Amino acid sequence: MSRDVFTFLVGGKAGEGVKKAGSTAAGHLALMGRHVFQMDDYQSLIKGGHNFSVVSSSVRAVTSHYMRADLVVALDALSYDLHHEHLADGGVVVYNSDQVSDGPGVGLPMTSEAAKYPSAELRVGVAGAAALAAALGLDRGAMQTLIAREYARDVENNIAYAGAIYDAAVPALGGRFRLEGGGAVMPIVSGNEAIGLGAAAAGLDAYFAYPMTPSSSLLHFLAAHDRDLGIAVVHAESEIAVANMAIGAAFAGARSMVGTSGGGFALMVEALSLAGMTEAPILCLLGQRSGPSTGVPTYTEQGDLGFALNPGHGEFPTIVASPGSVEEAFRLSAELLALVWCCQAVGILLSEKHLTESSMTVRLDPTQAAWAEPVGHPGGAYARYAETPDGVSPLAFPPSREVIKWNSYEHDAAGITTEHAGDIARMHDKRLRKTETIRRAVERLTAVNQYGDKGPVIFTYGSTTMSVLEAIHAGGIEATVVQPVYLRPFPDWALYEHRGSSPVVVEQSAGGQFARLLAEKGDIRAKTVIRRYDGRPFDPDELAAEIKSALK
Amino acid sequence: MDTMKAKDDLATTAGMAWCPGCGNFGILDAFKAAVRLLEERGVPRERLVMAAGIGQHGKIFDYTALSGFYSLHGRAIATAQGIKLANPDLAVITFVGDGDTMGEGIEHLIFAAKRNSDITVVVHDNGVYALTTGQRAPTSARGYRGPSTPHGNVEDPLNPLVLALEAGATFVARGYSARKKELADLMVEGVLHKGFSFIDVLQPCVTFNNTYATYERLAEPLGGEPRTFEEALTLARRQDRLPLGVFYRGDKPSHEESLLAGLNPVAAHPSRDERAARVAGLIAGSVKQP
To answer: How far is A497 from chain B, CA to nearest CA, in Å?
Structure first.
């Protein structure tokens, strides 16, 4: 191990339990009291292909996986071919000797041993956990405890199979990596789980979605816990239905949220414009994948920034923010739900596959989360769209003695359709006043994160923040990293000192959308834009080299 | 019908913009009568919420002093289901056009019926896109000439009743805008029915598709309610007569009952501390235990 990070990479076919082997490693390392970061690279298929899971771990907080691993476990021949050369100094590759005849590394009879048990193919991933246990120097009892905890179904066969692999691995691998631990044992949470937990902490009542990677795992998480939380979770017929149902639910008083990715978001935008007109508080997770169109469904990108900033026809206030870590995803999800309710606006939580579906050790405190509250009707005659100085009209919900009319047509204060010139202009003014109200609300929040205060400035945002922070650590680079959390309103009040500057910008889009936003809104003109747009998140070592070159 | 002559406390300030003689007037009158009848049947108007799509039908939203949501073209049924899921104690009645719900929004109609959402859908079925100057609708007859089909409609019409029956609606009826009392009764029954209620209303459009003569000739009350689903389907397929009344009543759990298992998300909205405790419990669950 050449640095303060230990990385475990396990690769194999879909259906072999690759991700499970990764999360088993992450769980064990977290139990040791270490920080972990797990990134799963998988394809849009159910069987075959090539998947891998990378877990990087340290006694310090680690904010990215590393592609050069200390221990690579290749469950099949393809994984060996693709990863055996990607070793950290002192690293070792363990391969399936039933599929790879010779080569550097340690061969273990993963397939032939698995064949002694039912569901041989599904069991191969257990070999990854067994090899890790040997390499970390676990004794036989500790290895069995690990397997029993993680592979509880058909546990006896799993322990027997793991035992055979462990015995074969110990002579060459036993205790190769003796890791320190001893820190607090932290929860391991994925980005989507953090988003769901954050929204729940803010008072979420109803979540509507149609499955679409990389947001489906939020639907799955909330559906699995709907009764624990006391919320409605609805898988509707399309993203169009999803967005319209959520707006209907908001009319009835439910704190509602939807989640999707680019294509589904495209179907939702008509309804987001409806939310703008009816002043429906609605929060949407836009989990980006590689586009355009169907694109590359299970890979990451930041190609939808421009779309998120302008999500629908007509002019209406919109809030867009993008979290730079799993912990921030939790905080921001709650904060946005509260903001959309205080301002009766559309909120977009912009994230990426690299954050929503990666997991890391975190500290989350639900008592510190924001809480969504409607601006209530104080009594007296009620008009849904009553004029107010801040543009926010009080809400009442049915059943009520008041007549509460929300209207997609331009409307008067009572919510009755109008084509009256004065009404039209007044209602535009009222809605636009909320833009200023939102700005004042966001000014009180952490709208920009700054890491460090020395050296050249690097601008980045979203999940790429995690990559940049890890790259700087890995490369020993002295730099100040600036991450706008809020993108609309653009936090120019917090970026004033950067006006006219020429920083390095790092983002995961082909066209440099973030760099363009900085130039247009902040007069910040990148001297170099480091872009990656092959669907893969940055590797910290590679990114460190690119940053060094850009800073020369 | 005395209730219709009562002081109209359901009127609004909106100016009337339907053509004189429009079938929509009959539907509006029937709805106001239904609101009053429902109050007698234990559904106070505070608890009754309306939704509407976009089209000539949708103006009923502006003309009725009742809480509700004027939705997008084709999307009112989705909006209505969202309202019902958030607060299942509300009674939700949704007014849609035939083009609105069987053109742009047909997925929501089919799925609301499929899942038996406990809402009532009233189709203002005039066989034409009236608000956009008379183009053919999904229910227009083959040969219908409108500005988008100057050589005649080359498609066969959808049959709304058959569609609703096949999709799983548990209350399916046909009304006629000129028979207001019967239509009001259908609306009351639809709202009181547990599950998805679908009422197709024959509605002449005096400007673009005046069907009064046809409906006066062909529309007649059902002799008796069909006893089986198959009988209902057979009757719904008839072209020579247009029977009015309830075609089918089914009994199965509503979507909200099944999905929410007794939860009323709005009524059960937790305190901040309660929710924080539940979230903390889930976070604790993601800590590995040795």
So the answer is: 38
- Interchain pair A145, B67: CB under 8 A: no
A231, A270, A409 ranked by CB distance to B70: nearest: A409
Binary contact (A417, B276; C-beta < 8 A): no
Pairing of the two strands B128-129 and B135-136: antiparallel
| Structural domain spans, chain B | 2-263
- Nearest chain A CA: its distance from B128 CA (Å): 21
Report whether CATH 1.20.120.550 matches the domain A189-445: no
Q: Is A205 helix (H, G, I), strand (E, B) or coil?
A: coil
Q: In Å, how far from its chain's centre is CA A136? A: 30
Q: What is the pLDDT along chain B (290 residues), one digit of tens a residue?
A: 444 455 799 999 999 999 999 999 999 999 999 999 999 999 999 999 999 999 999 999 999 999 999 999 999 999 999 999 999 999 999 999 999 999 999 999 999 999 999 999 999 999 999 999 999 999 999 999 999 999 999 999 999 999 999 999 999 999 999 999 999 999 999 999 999 999 999 999 999 999 999 999 999 999 899 999 999 999 999 999 999 999 999 999 999 999 999 999 999 999 999 999 999 999 999 998 88
Nearest in space to B113 (alpha carbons), one of B37, B39, B198, B28? B198
Question: A-B interface: how many C-beta pairs under 8 angstroms?
Answer: 214
Q: B49 touching A, CB under 8 A?
A: yes
Q: So what's the architecture of B2-263 in CATH?
A: 3-Layer(aba) Sandwich (3.40)
The shortest C-alpha distance from A90 to chain B (Å) reads 29
All residues at 6 or more sequence positions from A51 whose CB lies less than 8 Å from its CB, including other chains: A11, A12, A13, A14, A16, A18, A19, A40, A41, A42, A43
Q: In this complex, do A205 and B282 lie within 8 Å of one another by their Cβ atoms? A: no
Fold of the domain spanning A6-173: Pyruvate-ferredoxin Oxidoreductase; domain 3 (3.40.920)
Tell me if B61 and A407 make a contact (CB, 8 A cut-off): yes
Give me the residues of B, 225-284, that contact A with CB < 8 A. Answer: 259-261, 263, 265-266, 268-270, 272, 275-284
CATH 3.40.50.970 maps onto chain A at 189-445
Supply the ipTM of this predicted assembly: 0.97
Contacts of residue A534, defined as CB under 8 A and 6 or more positions apart, other chains included, come to none
CATH number of A448-551: 3.40.50.920
